[in-house]
Model the fold of this input.
Amino acid sequence: MSDADQQARLLLVEDDEVFAGVVARALSQRSYDVAHAVDTPYAQQLINSRTFNLAILDLNLGGETSLELIKPLKTRNPSIRILILTGYASIATAVEAIKLGADNYLAKPADTEEILTALLGSRELGEFSKANVSRMEPMSVRRLEWEHIQKVLKENDGNISATARQLKMHRRTLQRKLQKKPVAR
Done:
């Protein structure tokens, strides 16, 4: 078996070129064969042309979501390990990603070691972590509010008016809250 056959083939879907470059370089130094895509159409081309053992998908790709890539990746290789990486973590998106077949979900910022641990799981325990949603520390009240808003918004298929009515909140207040970045834990 050649070295190329022994290398784990990893798909990195990340639209932040600088971050992707750092992660790809670090993984290549650890003997991973990394293919990088900046958007879902190019990622789909790579999925159709190669079989990957591992995938790291940035959740938000300039207005698109990478969740639609999970099914084709799993179809091509049912044993693939998939990590969803995002700067906008929420419980609702984590649950959706896991239901679609992702193995783990990690909030940015994350270094290469954290990414590999989340992607590969705990080898020492002989098991893979299923949905280690970020680092489970107690959340602030503001963060709990953010999570609840995201959950209700998802239940209403993104309809802000319906979500505001359900939350008994003025629509403009909800819009202002949604324009802000997620609250830190």
Observations:
- DSSP finds nine helices and seven strands in the chain.
- The beta strands are 8-13, 32-37, 54-58, 60-61, 64-65, 81-86, 104-107.
